[in-house]
Write a structure and sequence with these properties.
The protein has a single domain, classed as 5'-nuclease (Rossmann fold), CATH 3.40.50. 49% of the residues lie in helices and 14% in strands. It is built from 6 helices and 6 strands, in the order βααβααβααβββ. A 4-stranded mixed β-sheet has the order 1-4-6-5. A two-stranded parallel ribbon has the order 2-3. The protein is globular and about 35 Å long. The two termini are 14 Å apart.
């Protein structure tokens, strides 16, 4: 599988479950190209789906099946944690955002789709944050 060098933050993937058809369609379009996520993204998605959206565990697993099929999933490791801690301090990121960034960098991604982080911000001259709902994105 040829996976684009794009990483998805949890907040973007959650639009697949929203009533906002335009944003859900945009995320579906992006994710259909493939990409990367971390186990943290899976955990956060499942937590929000079951706790805030009141989905059953079975429903949550069902929604995650196609995401897991098209995205390469990266483990949480001690090295990712250590890098995340460094990034949180250096760039003043929340710990959870820094762990997402660390996983994206470790995966070799050049784009991170996130609605929570600053659109256009570049980390380590390698990884650019894109808010997929602000403007047209580069095509791969």
């Amino acid at each position: 599988m040829n996976v684009p060098e794009q990483f998805f933050d949890t907040n973007v993937l959650l639009y697949l479950l929203s009533g906002d058809d335009a944003k859900a369609d945009k995320v579906e379009e992006l994710i259909s190209q493939g990409g990367h996520i971390s186990v943290q993204v899976l955990n956060e998605f499942a937590s929000i789906a079951t706790r805030k959206l009141k989905m059953t565990h079975a429903e949550t697993r069902e929604v995650l099946v196609p995401i897991r099929a098209v995205c390469h999933i990266h483990p949480l490791t001690e090295a990712v944690h250590d890098l995340g801690m460094q990034l949180a301090e250096r760039y003043q990121l929340s710990i959870y955002d820094a762990m997402i960034v660390a996983a994206a960098l470790t995966a070799g991604c050049t784009s991170l789709f996130s609605e929570d982080m600053q659109d256009g911000f570049v980390i380590r001259q390698t990884l650019r944050i894109h808010n997929p709902f602000h403007h047209d994105l580069p095509s791969w």
